[in-house]
Amino acid sequence: MTKYKKGKIVKGTVTGIESYGAFVSLDEYYSGLIHISEISHDFVKDIHDYVQIGDIIYVEILDVDEQLCQLKLSIKNIDYKRNTNIRRKYIKEIGSGFKLLASRLPFWVDENLKKQKNKLNSIDK
After folding, report:
1. Which tens digits make up the pLDDT trace of 67-76?
2. Gap between the Cα atoms of 120 and 25, Å rounded
3. Is the pLDDT score of 84 beyond 80?
């Protein structure tokens, strides 16, 4: 008898992604597939929008094949990324950053101040 049962929610690691689904390893013996139809209730154009290789996620077990030690998995109906501290993504800083916005800010402030003054002047008249 396996420790994995239909309907149970367990933690696993995404080990591969194909156009038809994502492979998840649960332990050294058991692995499973999240078919693309079990990723989301919405249309899934790219599985990478939901999971990446190396992500540690929660999955729901839909079916267990004990002979092959394989599972059919789903993330469609659960909060599969419960712990956001598991894998953090850092945005690479590029040279320009907010420089363009910072250079335009004084112009935008002056422009909006003029609009506000015009509104006040039109109200006073």
Report:
1. 888 899 999 9
2. 65
3. no
Compute the CA torsion angle 5, 13, 86, 76 (nearest 10 deg).
-60
Cα 59 to Cα 81: distance, rounded to the nearest angstrom? 9
Contacting residues for 42 by C-beta, under 8 A, at least 6 apart: none
What is 9-74's CATH topology? OB fold (Dihydrolipoamide Acetyltransferase, E2P) (2.40.50)
Cα distances from 80 to residues 38, 45, 73, in angstroms, run 12, 18, 11
Concatenating the DSSP letter of every residue in the chain gives --S--TT-EEEEEEEEEETTEEEEE-SSS-EEEEEGGGT-SS--S-GGGT--TT-EEEEEEEEEETTTTEEEEE-TTS-TT--TTSS---PPP-SSTTHHHHHHHHHHHHHHHHHHHHHHHHHH-
Give the predicted TM-score (pTM) of the model. Answer: 0.63
- Decide if 50 contacts 40 (C-beta within 8 A): yes
* Separation of alpha carbons 83 and 102, rounded Å: 35
